[in-house]
Design the sequence.
């Protein structure tokens, strides 16, 4: 069942019904579309806390379309550009905000998924085809950071973050790149789905947790004392919850894992549950979540407070996979959503540099 954007929406247990305003289910984001009337009807406050975050004269913009599955947006501070992956097309793309120019950054790109930049401004990528985590050096060479654990190849590294305190690289390995047959090369899983950490001093790879069905998107809290991880295991395991978990970060270890939020949401009196994918925190501790697989009124970005209350929605006409904050002030939210790249300015600052 797909619900109307004109329907009423309530979050489970804590929020009263909130109208999704008079926005049609099908919205024209093309270049010839009529301008949107402010305030943007698809940026929806479910709580007073989000009223301070949404901007009255900021519209959702579709920056580019024509991809097959957009993933892994990352903002380059030194380069002042956004890059992301178009996985099935085996390409990495680049958007220049000065003039809106979009070009191919790399092709082939080994069907890369998640990307980020380290503290030196070097791009890190999770490659599906090679099952590796790599770093692109300033001279154009590629350094392999991780390709095996306990003598076995990874399944397909998926999403990646850097801890600025020690420079450690944390990444998830749910195995989607191995399960889906890009160019007919479907492969078996070699590892239990897990989260790994690369030590910056020794380059040693450690498994930090496998207490999750399929760990997908991940991000640190603003103080780096917590790690949030989305579980998309329900795509393959019937008993997997559709939720986000959180752990305390204890140096190179994780402890006290628990559910942070369920992705369940009540719409028109029925409970629907999509899946969370990419995650990012803002400096206030809110968690921004790329979400989808339900339909209109749900697919887009869900914003949760640090306490786990859903406070806002950014509705998109496509399933949103991954997100990141970018721009000179880190207050522009970029959203990689299925075939398109979207962006909207918000009164929030990304907690991390990309």
Sequence:
């Amino acid at each position: 069942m797909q619900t109307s954007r004109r329907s009423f929406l309530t979050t489970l247990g804590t929020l009263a019904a909130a109208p999704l305003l008079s926005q049609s289910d099908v919205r024209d984001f093309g270049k010839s579309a009529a301008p949107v009337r402010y305030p943007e009807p698809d940026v929806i406050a479910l709580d007073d806390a989000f009223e301070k975050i949404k901007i009255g004269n900021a519209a959702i913009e579709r920056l580019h379309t024509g991809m097959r599955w957009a993933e892994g947006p990352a903002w380059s501070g030194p380069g002042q550009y956004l890059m992301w992956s178009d996985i099935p097309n085996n390409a990495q793309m680049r958007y220049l905000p000065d003039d809106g120019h979009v070009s191919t950054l790399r092709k082939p790109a080994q069907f890369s998924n998640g990307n980020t930049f380290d503290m030196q401004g070097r791009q890190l990528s999770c490659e599906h085809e090679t099952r590796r985590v790599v770093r692109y050096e300033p001279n154009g060479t590629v350094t392999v950071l991780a390709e095996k654990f306990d003598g076995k190849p990874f399944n397909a590294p998926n999403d990646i973050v850097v801890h600025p305190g020690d420079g450690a690289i944390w990444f998830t390995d749910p195995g989607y790149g191995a399960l889906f047959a890009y160019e007919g090369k479907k492969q078996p899983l070699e590892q239990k789905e897990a989260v790994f950490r690369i030590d910056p001093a020794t380059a040693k790879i450690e498994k930090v947790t496998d207490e999750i069905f399929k760990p997908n998107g991940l991000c640190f809290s603003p103080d780096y004392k917590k790690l949030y991880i989305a579980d998309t295991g329900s795509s393959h395991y019937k008993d997997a919850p559709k939720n986000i978990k959180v752990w305390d970060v204890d140096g190179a270890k994780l402890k006290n894992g628990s559910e942070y939020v369920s992705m369940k949401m009540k719409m028109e009196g029925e409970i629907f549950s999509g899946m969370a994918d990419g995650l990012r925190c803002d400096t206030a501790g809110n968690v921004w979540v790329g979400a989808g697989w339900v339909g209109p009124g749900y697919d887009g970005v869900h914003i949760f407070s640090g306490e786990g209350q859903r406070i806002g929605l950014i509705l998109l006409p496509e399933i949103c996979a991954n997100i990141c904050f970018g721009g000179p002030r880190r207050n522009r939210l970029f959203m990689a959503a299925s075939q398109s790249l979207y962006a909207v300015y918000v009164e929030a600052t990304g907690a991390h540099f990309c």
Summary: The chain has two helices and 31 strands.
